[in-house]
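Sat 14:20. Reprocessing the chain from the morning session after the first attempt stalled halfway. Input below, unchanged.
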Amino acid sequence: MGRTSDAREKIITAAQTLIEQRGYSALGVAEICKAAGVPKGSFYYFFESKEALALTVVDEHWTAQRREWTRILGADAAPLERLRRLFEATEEIQHAGQQSCGTVSGCMFGNLTLEMSNQTESIRGRLQEIFDTQVGMIDEVVTEARERGEVTVADTHAAAASIVAQLEGQVLFAKLYNDTGRLSPLWTNCLAILGVTALPEAMAGA
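Finished this time. Tokens:
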């Protein structure tokens, strides 16, 4: 095929699928190239190493996920409703993945954190930046909810970090048990973290 314009995207797509299915460490460049249908020379034309490819995969995955998080969390709805929609979207994505390949793939960022954070500093640092950004996005919504008197939590940033942590934890359990039903407590857990004892009237019947 050579160094055609779509070779880079084929490599990235193949690598993302393989990383989601098998992790990073077990993959070799030859396997990635075979799955992408490109010669090895094309790989090294676009990427200096497997690590460089992994960072690109992480960045592209985050670009797509951040766009979706921004859409949901920035919607014209009450802050708690936006958080609930984020959890629902997470569950839908994991369920769709399970329907497609038969197993719950989990979160790429969480999977790589468990596998790589003590081995590859560049990947660890990038993942930390992503999770920090996620916490910041949640923090903005929680702060808005507190200003509306809908949550009682004092430290919105710590609460946001706990929400992201419990989201990752439930996704991890869903992968472990291959059961998207493990994601059902996300909303209830979030309300407990935020100290919500009664939902706003607009959401009570939802």
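The chain has a mean pLDDT of 92.
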